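Question (not urgent): is this output format expected?
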Amino acid sequence: MTRRDRLEIIYDILSIIRKHGNSILPTPLLRFSNLSTQNFNRYMDELVKKGLVREIQDESGRRYYSLTDKGFRFLEKYQKIREFIEEFGL
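Got this back:
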């Protein structure tokens, strides 16, 4: 089993949010991302600060994460990079 690098982890987190209808609670996102709570919180803080993800609270105070337009663009561009790398066998 190989370790995921930073960009792969970011891609995985953003993909999970997208796959869940662009709205997911923190606990399932933590579970699906397969990160420790500490690492998960670090990544989410960074993603919110960089404008890739937004944190939303509903009327009952529950927090959700959703992608911003910038987050969707990251997913598109990162997927193109992955395809490029695979095409050349790198």
